[in-house]
Amino acid sequence: MRSPLLALIAGALASVLFAGTAHAAPVAADPFSPVLTKNPIYKTGELGTETCEEQPLQRDDLDGARVYLEFLLDCLADSWREPITKAGFTFKEPKFSVISKPGAATGCGKFPRGAQAVYCPNNKKITFLLDPYILSEPTELFLMAVIAHEYGHHIQDLTGVLNIVDRYKGKSKARIYDEARRVELQAECMSGAFIGSVWHSLGRRDFDFKYIVQTAQVGFDDGIHGKPANIAWWLQRGFDAESPSACNTWAAPKGKVR
Questions:
Q1: Are the beta carbons of 52 and 203 closer than 8 angstroms?
Q2: Is the pLDDT of residue 213 over 50?
Q3: pLDDT at res. 48
Q4: Is the pLDDT of residue 127 over 60?
Q5: Which of 34, 209, 238, 255 has CB atoms 3.0–4.6 Å from 38's, for a disulfide?
Q6: How large is the angle between the packed helices 173-202 and 142-158, nearest 10 degrees?
Q7: Under 8 Å between Cβ of 179 and 25
């Protein structure tokens, strides 16, 4: 039976960007830098692969979920390598580790409670929490959506986005929160773009994707990750486009990045 998995709503579809950073993610001076608004990644077309092999999963199987995620990371690398290179950047795969409870070191502080996964730009590493909540429904798309979201942060790192926005001097709290939302919603869109690009190879029902969109819509607004309706909107937008061209949150109307 499907359940909303409220813990996932908080941590999975709206995962924390930097572990251990109270100021969350950032905001560039107004107007936004061309690195944000006119990044060449937006002009690279659809993602580089149309197939992805999902590994079989059993409920409450941590090792199986880890293997599943590792295979997805291979798919994500195949998908993003060509666009990153085409845009003139150097592609590098992120480091990856799984944990079973919060508190582990991530390279950006301790893994925070309430998050499902974090990306740390200091060591270019994704740390994924495989807790009982997400392991209880392994056949849902949550594992894929979360790892693809964190990979979106890695892409932001490789393309200079995080370097630009991770500058806080002279920024108001409102400005910092504004950029935090744009960072998170862009990663959400990139997650959708990946899922959309490999969708027909997964052999899944259309409702499987609709379910994670619906789950996003009933989340809560923490002021940092975007309103639930906007999280769902960017996820769907990326899915439909199958391309980072749909993910320019820096040029989006304010109503879509609140």
A1: no
A2: yes
A3: 87
A4: yes
A5: 34
A6: 120
A7: yes
Predicted local confidence at residue 167, as pLDDT: 73
Q: Say whether pLDDT at 13 is over 90.
A: no
Give the list of residues 6+ apart from residue 67 with CB closer than 8 angstroms, or none.
Answer: 55
Taking 50 as the threshold, does the pLDDT of residue 26 lie above it?
A: no
Contact 55, 178 (CB under 8 A): no
The whole-angstrom separation of Cα 230 and Cα 258 is: 7
Q: Which long-range contacts (CB under 8 A, 24 or more apart) does 93-97 make?
A: 94/119, 94/124, 94/125, 94/126, 94/150, 94/151, 94/154, 95/123, 95/124, 95/125, 95/126, 96/69, 96/70, 96/125, 96/126, 96/127, 96/128, 97/125, 97/126, 97/127, 97/128
Max distance between CA atoms of the chain, in angstroms, equals 50
Q: What is the pLDDT of residue 94?
A: 98
CB-count exposure of residue 178 (10 Å: 0-12, 13-18, 19+)? buried
Q: What share of the chain is helix, strand, coil (3-state, %, to 5)?
A: 50, 5, 45
Report the predicted TM-score, pTM, of the whole model to 2 decimal places. Answer: 0.89
In this predicted structure, the answer to whether residue 227 has a pLDDT above a threshold of 50 is yes
Instruction: Please list, residue by residue across 143-169, b when 16 or more beta carbons sit within 10 angstroms of its beta carbon and e when fewer do.
Output: bbbbbbbbbbbbbbbbbbbbebbbeee
Distance CA 160, CA 176 (A): 17
